[in-house]
TrEMBL record:
This is PDZ domain-containing protein. SMART domains: PDZ. GO terms for molecular function: serine-type endopeptidase activity. Pfam families: PDZ_2, Trypsin_2. InterPro entries: Chloro_Bact_Ser_Proteases (IPR051201), PDZ (IPR001478), PDZ_sf (IPR036034), Peptidase_S1_PA (IPR009003), Peptidase_S1C (IPR001940). Keywords: Hydrolase, Protease. Residues 290-339 form the PDZ domain. GO terms for biological process: proteolysis. It comes from Candidatus Woesebacteria bacterium RIFCSPHIGHO2_01_FULL_41_10. Coiled coil: none annotated.
Length: 381
């Protein structure tokens, strides 16, 4: 009898304990109490982490599948030439034919189904050569016409095609540092449709960009910095957000550091496209014709020179050369406006002017201030 009572008492205590635990668990979840979490984690951390990884991978895959049909490779057909070689071990001179083969030199993307392709101007800067566009399904189109915008390092290629998959253009005015991005292009001029990922590392950068294939460099302002791998050959390809929209045109990679690439904001491209669709050309922009580097206040003090735009190169035939500006000059003022006070430096001041405007330029040369006068030319001329 006592054993039966003891057994029933034990059962009752066990049921009470079970009810207490279940009741506490229900209350914890319904009332969002945290006590149970200390004993039994909700179990979402690893699942959520796995889900985050899965979502990121899915996003990249989705962007690549959506956009790759709109990304193209730019090739150039080098002209054939006969080369003579002397054989010192006998046989005299030998001749062979070089060139005549296509070489992948850059990337681009389709912006209109009728055959408009955007790329960098430095990718297609050579004259008297044949350029071709290769789609991701290996269809080949010869470029019929090239319209260049040297002030923005942009070019529009026209090919004879129809029903091409046009890419979706995004908005580069609301980008944030840390935002996820995807880059697609022909890496190293060899590996077509290479997909890389990263984030936006900086905005509003000013850089000196160029083409390793053609030895061309120029100054670009207000570009996007990214750590997505951008290699020679990626130039002209799209920088994309997680929705597969183009937010930039991959333009340059730093030769002095790793994981530093740059892209032109897509809104700059959209402005150029609007002008092109209306007139068939890019808008006229004032061009001084100098390559320069801005001198910071600290550098000016250390070197006992004024702040301004330090002239590194002069473009032959343009306004700067005609004014008498020389390499190593420092441009300090334009029409009385202090160059150093503008966020975008010399380029920011020149945006106020149009081709044909005459202006005064104050320069510092060998410790003396001089004032020159010149008439601005058209950047696309």
């Amino acid at each position: 009898m006592n054993k039966t009572k003891a057994f029933l008492a034990g059962v009752a205590v066990t049921l009470i304990l079970i009810a207490s635990v279940l009741g506490g668990a229900i209350a914890d979840r319904l009332l969002n109490l945290s006590l149970l979490d200390r004993l039994i984690p909700r179990g979402t951390s690893s699942a959520q982490n796995g889900q985050i990884i899965f979502n990121e991978e899915s996003s990249v895959i989705s962007v690549a599948e959506k956009v790759s049909p709109s990304v193209v490779t730019i090739t150039v057909e080098t002209p054939q030439r006969r080369v003579l070689n002397f054989n010192p071990f006998g046989g005299g001179f030998e001749s062979r034919i070089e060139g005549g083969e296509d070489q992948d030199i850059g990337s681009g993307f389709i912006v209109d189904a009728s055959g408009l392709v955007v790329t960098n101007r430095h990718v297609v800067d050579q004259e008297d050569v044949t350029y071709k566009v290769i789609t991701n399904n290996d269809k080949e189109y010869e470029v019929q016409k090239i319209t260049r915008d040297p002030s923005n390092d942009l070019a529009i290629l026209q090919i004879d095609a129809e029903d091409l998959p046009a890419i979706e253009l995004g908005d580069s005015d609301n980008l944030k540092v840390g935002q996820f991005v995807v880059a697609i292009g022909t890496a190293l001029g060899e590996f077509r449709h290479t997909v890389t990922t990263g984030v936006i590392s900086g905005l509003g950068r000013g850089i000196t960009a160029g083409s390793p294939f053609q030895g061309f460099v120029e100054r670009l302002d207000n570009v996007i910095q990214t750590d997505a791998a951008i290699n020679p050959g990626n130039s002209g390809g799209p920088l994309l957000n997680s929705a597969g929209q183009v937010i930039g045109v991959n333009t340059a990679v730093s030769q002095d550091a790793e994981n530093i690439g740059f892209a032109l904001p897509i809104n700059t491209v959209k402005e150029g496209l609007a002008q092109f669709n209306e007139t068939g050309s890019f808008a006229s922009k004032a061009f001084l014709g100098v390559g320069y580097q801005m001198i910071s206040r600290q550098a000016a003090i250390l070197n006992d020179v004024p702040q301004g735009a330090y002239v590194q190169t002069i473009e032959p035939g343009y306004a700067a050369e005609r004014a008498g500006i020389q390499v190593d000059d420092i441009i300090t003022k334009i029409d009385g406006q202090n160059v150093a006070e503008y966020e975008d430096g010399l380029a920011g001041i020149l945006l106020q002017y149009k081709p044909g405007d005459t202006l005064s330029i104050e320069i510092w040369r060998n410790g003396e201030i001089q004032t020159l006068t010149t008439t601005l030319t058209d950047a696309s001329s």
